[in-house]
Task: structure prediction
Amino acid sequence: MSGKIEEIVNNAKITELLNKKKAEEENKNFVLWILAIIGAVAAVAAIAFAVYRYMNPKYADFDGDFDYDEFEDDFEDDDIDDEDVYVKKAH
Result:
């Protein structure tokens, strides 16, 4: 009779271990699904940004170069007289 009790206890331990492994696998699957969803959303956002950048010519062609020559006429040297400029005399 003690053999049957030991067998029942062993079966209970094996069942408990199998249930733990099954729970761990379910947790892993859940985490993998969450990461897959996050990756899919990130991929869609990257594609949308690339399409936006391609379709918007102002944004795509901006080189950062500015044309400063358009302000050149505002500061002409002809308006300044030599008398208006203060020069410190050397000793």
The helical segments are 2-55, 57-60.
